[in-house]
Amino acid sequence: MKRFAVRFARTTEMTLLAICVVFFVGLVIASGGDLLAANSLRVLLQFLAVPVLIGLAQMVVLAVGQLNLAVGAIGGVAAVSMGVLMAEHGVPVVVALLIGFLLATVTGLVNGLLVVLTRINGFIVTLATMTVLLGVQYRVVGTRTVDDYPQSVKSFGSHAVFGVLPLIFLVALVVAALLAVMLRRTVPGRQLLASGGNPIAARLSGISNDRSVIIAHTLSGAILGVAAILTVASSPGVNKSIGGDWLLPSFAAPIIGGALLTGGSAVVLGTVLAAFIVRFVDTARAEFSLEPSWVNFVVGAVVLGSVVLGQLRSRRQERRTVVKAPDAAVAGGVL
Amino acid sequence: MTLFLADKVDKLFPGVRALDGVTLKLEAGSVHALLGENGAGKSTLIKVITGLYKPDGGRLVLDGSEVQFGSPHESASAGIGVVHQERNLIPGFTVGENILLQKLPTSRGLVDRSAIRTEAARWLAELDLDLDPDQPVTELSVAQAQLVEIAKALSVESRVLLLDEPTASITPNEAERLFRVVAKLKNDGRAVLFVSHKLEEVFQICDTVTVLRDGASVLESGPLGDLTRDQVVDLMVGRVHEALALPPRTVPAADPLLELSGVGTATGHADVDLSVRPGEIVGLYGLVGAGRSELAKALLGLDRITAGEVRVRGQAVRIRNVRDALRNHKIGYVTENRKEEGVFLEQSVSRNIAVTVWDRLRKALGYVPAKAEAAMVAEYVEQLGIRIASPAQLAGTLSGGNQQKVSLAKWLAAKTEILIIDEPTVGIDVRTKDAFHTLIWDLAANGLAILLITSDLPEMITLADRVVVMRDHRVQGEVLNDHDYDTMSQRVIRLIHAEGTTAA
């Protein structure tokens, strides 16, 4: 147990946790304690739910050595479909949300199948499906904003437990927990990480790398389905621009969280913490009334900084040991 | 009792018979050596046995009944454990998970960590290994990782264990520990196949031996005790070879163009002495992994030189990169990885050859006149006899031999004076090979200093004036080539397998 504690203290997660705490305390002081008010905390967490999920949706494909450029497009199509079904076709809430969720999941599955069956690089496959889906999203919703859906959805989106913990934030945490258990404790999860960590060794151990790739993309789609539901519930309305700004944050969170682009790392906690940090940067901007462009600047710098740190870390480790990921498993490549 | 039998196994690759009626018999409670030179078919045979390759003839018999394996998973389930040459552990996983990766224990749908711990501990104990199953494998040393892989191979309840060059990257002390483990496995009644290039190890721990040469078994399951070291070498090398008749060529007495003294590198070389004179072909021979290509890359500045001195034309130099090597020292490197590093497959032959000389051909603003390029390309296409429809043909559409010529042509076009040629004829048919040998011979006759790296012993003996033998990143010794295959091959192979460093 003590050994475990020592190991954890050296992890990226620990560093991120420390940064989170420092950041938070700093913000509380800067705001003169206002941030601790129930309402401020609720808003802070409310806007964290979707970023956490899109980060996880990207993390799970990075874990197998792939990437998903279609995160925003999948979420966008699912969100506008749900909105239009409820508002304009009178489809019951539960059915509409379920259809949207399944739509996103199946799109993820299709991404995985395309990568495996065509052997085309995942970058190109998801770039193509992203473009197709953006077309679909425009076709479904056009230039209008759909907001005339039932009150029950909107109250789900704004409800907060004890007035502090938004329901949608809790949903995001539950998804994160389920994903962590899946990756750490189930056989398909372990196989997925084995395929990402060393595809040759995985194959020689009787693991199907193709299956791992398909599972990863499908999971990514399913998580985006949940993200789309939360978006519909918490935004004033849905339109063609939903999902348009998801791609960069989806990479920022897992990369800051310590994910390896070569695959093999499951950094659920890291991704969640990184989403917190990005959110804090945004809060700080509001607090100090800085220009919005500062957020991009800072997040970009943090991404670069954490990648450099990660490299230093792995180089130090390489010098000591021998087991390392093969070069073949570059992001987007399949064996 | 015969536990496993590979009976008259054939394996064909396009244009090559990789295995030709090979028979291998593994007995329970016995350690069997599989020997052969580079490319003799050892790894192919292991891949056939483990189901990575499908045999084209013959049969596999396990425990008296015929078996067919469609995948490594099937052979593992049948009880054949393998430790491959490459490291095969998953970096982010614990020791326990890696050992049991082929069949992770579960309870109620979740991976059962305590079962992993106890079961992995059982296999670690079986090998007398004091390791914590919860430890990440990234914390292991090379030798520990190796032993964990053996535990992994055993974990499928295997009774047949294949070890492919397990001692290639560990120290003699660690190897001793490995041998104790092998002895234990043997006493437990398992059949162990031991592939190694180190004959002293083979004689130390093996009971029987199969020798492969050119894909055929020249000795099938003979008792090792009846053989001497020299007899084994004779079997590995063989005696028959028809050499290509090349015109006599004398090396002019001149100062060396390239000279290394006491060179050490970041990749592990130490005390490397070497010299190449103009008009001379110096062969660099050694087993795969002896550090020959790595030495070439260090010479080109791709790896750091940490000790000693490199002299070019008598001047001590520090070569920074390939560009520096080419421009300032006129050194070229024809890579062994033709398709990955040698030619631009999607580019025309013409561009491929001109890539090294654009600096010379270009006019103002980097414009390269098509006419000058075409004339220059035509010259080398003619000189090397590259068979192309037009200089615009894509390099990827050429045969292996012609691609190799294109890869060579760009260095000639750059007017290099020192040429390092790495495995020039791998995967090239015999006739083209002869043409290539003539070509390299002529280049030397025209005054180029050539450092030839090849694992093909006949090729080495055909071409080289002197053969420098390397092992474990050091020079074992040097043999003056008398172009007599029998005596030369004996001397070179003996030098490789000699204990310590001696000059022949």
How would you portray this structure in words?
The complex is a heterodimer of chains A (335) and B (504). With 335 residues, chain A is mainly alpha-helical. Chain A has 15 helices and two strands. Chain A has helices at 2-9, 12-30, 38-46, 49-63, 71-89, 93-118, 122-141, 151-158, 167-185, 187-197, 199-204, 209-234, 247-256, 268-287, 293-320, and strands spanning 160-161, 165-166. Chain A has a two-stranded antiparallel ribbon with strand order 1-2. The longest helix of chain A is centred in the last third of the chain and has 28 residues, at 293-320. In chain B, helix 4 crosses helix 5, helix 8 packs across helix 18 (485-497) and helix 14 (370-384) crosses helix 15. In chain B, strand 19, helix 16 and strand 20 (449-453) form a beta-alpha-beta unit. Chain A binds chain B through residues 181, 184-187, 189-190, 193-194, 197-198, 200-207, 264-266, 317, 320-325, and chain B through 52, 71-73, 76-77, 82, 84, 86-93, 97, 101-102, 104, 106, 109-111, 113, 137-142, 145, 152.
